[in-house]
Amino acid sequence: MAGVRHIALARTLAARAWLACLLAAALLAGAQKAFSAPPLDAGESIYQHGIAGSGEAVEASHDGGVHMSGAAAACMNCHRRSGLGTREGNSTIPPISGQYLFHARIQNPEELDIPYVDGMRANREPYTDATVARAIREGLDSEGKPLSYLMPQFALNDADMAALIGYLKRLDQRRAPGVTDTVLHFATIITPDADPVKRRGMLDVLEHYFTDKNASPLGATPPLRTSRKMMFMVNRRWELHVWELHGAPETWHEQLKQYLAQQPVFAVLSGLGGKNWAPVHDFCEQQAVPCLFPNVDVPVETDHDFYSMYFSKGVLLEAELIAKRILAADNGERKGTVKTVRQIYRAGDSGEAAAQALANALKGHGVNVSSRALAPGDRVAEALHSARGTDALVLWLRPPDIAAVAGKPPASTQVFVSGLMGGLDRTPLPANWRGATRIAYPVDLPEGRRVRVDYAFGWFAIRRIPIVDERVQADTYLACGLLAETLSHMVDAFVRDYLVERIDDMLEHRILTGYYPRLTLAPGQRYASKGGYIVRFAEPEGMRLVADSAWIVP
User: Fold this and answer.
1) Which residues contact 554 (CB under 8 A, 6 or more apart)?
2) Residue 336 has what pLDDT?
3) Buried-exposed string 27-50: b where 16+ CB fall within 10 A, e elsewhere
């Protein structure tokens, strides 16, 4: 009976893993609808998109009677973009890139000359083109044994099969850029409109983190054999390259291209932007360079890019939070009375994109939205006068402009302020505005995040790093820690796609998440924190905040 129960449990776990793969496939299918870049060849199209060389959907079936086609049948849903596999529940999806499929059988782990990856099997007969085709079509391994319950059988003709096998062989032929036997090269990117105070704070954290990382003895890294023996023995020095951009955004692509040609990097770490990060985002996507958690208030909204990861949607998330409050529903009926909204922002600042996002979110809901862009020299007081009589006022302004409303009565009975732009807990809101004003707050409350950021602030204190912007510096430290933790588990499998995939997998298990209550990245998601609060100051004086809502995920 025990054996029967074990078999039943194994099938249950496998079924759950298979459902996880199907869920990933469904999410990816939705993301891929927006994907317009043509595939390089039929092999890539089959592997990534489930589209055969003829342009028709790939068809596959599973022993449990599940039939799939198109994006749901794409190989990378389970084996991932890198081809290095993953874990689904208690099941391991093996690597299927060429060097793992065709590697000669070894008896002694010391003979292994390729990077260790979970799920790899080096003690079986190597695959050939013929046995790979059999595995894909019939679900039998290189020795003729049945593959995992999770493996579907695919209906591919000979031309498509040859293209797919050729693609698997090419997946791991290139040495990772920015990686040598002794050094891992990383860049951080700073745009011309980045805040100079935040710039210094971010670079202080990065430079000290890299110094600490390199404090251990240096030397050539020996080939790593097994996860048990060598998991934490990667011993490459980290080198940071600061890529400062200059001039107009349309020139940034060429500047970045020159930087990358002069010094290839494995990934872009942190970074700092102002209003426009899109040229940097697009460059990293085009060059397949991971861009890990830059400090930007206006990240690029996308449902199909892969290499760029953000902690949150910044002020775009704030716009969604405010819109949800304005359009608060009760049994499908609007319970709010907001019919007119006036927005004020500085032209050329991050609030411009946020104001547009809020206007788009309210469009079609019977709310009249007007906006006032302040030019250099324009006074906030004059803009407030034109906002009188509106049901809600939204200020996408920095602290000096917010402080300038002191002495003026609130221009509306409902006022919303950007927390990220205004300074979060330190938003200089005058006492007479506090009763009517709510702050969009896309991070955890101070008491909720205190334990999660204390370690970082203690680390800053020991290294005498001046705290000039708590959130930027805490986020930069968190990005560094996520990279270090991920690389330690990658052992020496330095593949850019694999780095992104491992961060995706590990993020939700991290305990210290800085300013954010939880971080997760499902397939097709690039924003790790999904929600926020609407908060208010508890008293006319002081800096204590209280939530005016539960945690909101728009």
Assistant:
1) 317, 320, 321, 323, 324, 531
2) 55
3) bbbebbeebeeebeebbbbbbbbb
| The two three-digit tokens of residue 286, written as one number | 């085009």
Q: Measured between alpha carbons, how far is 289 from 268 in angstroms, rounded to an integer? A: 7
**Cβ-contact 439, 549 below 8 angstroms:** no
Beta strands 437-441 and 533-537, pairing class = antiparallel
**Ramachandran quadrant class, 176 (left: phi over 0; alpha: psi -120 to 50; beta: rest):** beta
Q: How far apart are CA 90 and CA 94, in angstroms?
A: 13
CB 97 within 8 A of CB 172: yes
Instruction: Return d(Cα 436, Cα 488) in angstroms, integer.
Output: 49
Residue-level pLDDT at 109: 67
Question: Which tokens belong to 367?
Answer: 């709310």
| Both structure tokens of 337 | 């009375």
Cβ atoms of 362 and 327 closer than 8 Å: yes
Q: State in Å, rounded, how far the first CA of the chain is from the last one.
A: 49
Residues 6+ apart with CB under 8 A from 454: none
Q: Please check whether the two domains, 183-311+446-521 and 316-441+534-547, share a CATH topology.
A: yes
What Å distances lie between residue 295 and 315, 472, 473, CA to CA?
Answer: 12, 6, 9
Task: Identify the pLDDT of residue 22.
Answer: 46
The parts of the chain modelled with pLDDT lower than 70 are: 1-40, 64, 109, 173-174, 217-234, 329-336
Q: Which CATH superfamily is domain 183-311+446-521 in?
A: Response regulator (3.40.50.2300)
In 3D, which of 150, 148, 140, 120 has the Cα closest to residue 17?
150
Residue 513 CA to residue 388 CA, distance in Å, equals 41
Class of domain 316-441+534-547 as given by CATH: alpha beta
Outline where 214-328 has alpha helix (H). 227-230, 252-262, 278-287, 315-326
Quote the CA–CA distance of 550 and 91 in Å, as a whole number. Answer: 36
Quick one: which of 416, 250, 391 has its CA closest to 321?
416
pLDDT at 40: 53
User: In 350-495, where does DSSP find H-type helix?
Assistant: 350-362, 380-386, 399-403, 419-422, 446-462, 470-490
For helices 315-326 and 350-362, give the axis angle rounded to 10 degrees: 30
Q: Where are the alpha helices (DSSP H) in 41-143?
A: 42-44, 76-79, 98-101, 129-138
Kindly compute the dihedral angle of the four CA atoms of residues 5, 6, 10, 15, in this order, to the nearest 10 degrees: 0
93 touches 86 (CB < 8 A): yes
Q: What are residue 440's DSSP bridge partners?
A: 418, 534
Contact 403, 381 (CB under 8 A): no
Paired with 183 in beta bridges are: 237
pLDDT of residue 492: 85
Give the pLDDT of residue 130.
Answer: 96
Domain edges within the chain: 2-170, 183-311+446-521, 316-441+534-547
User: Which two three-digit tokens encode residue 76?
Assistant: 């990378």
The pLDDT, as a whole number, for residue 87 is 77
How far apart (Å, rounded) are the C-alpha atoms in residues 173 and 533? Answer: 47
Between CA 535 and CA 544 the distance in angstroms is: 10
In the three-class reduction of DSSP (H, G, I as helix; E, B as strand; rest coil), residue 170 is classed as helix
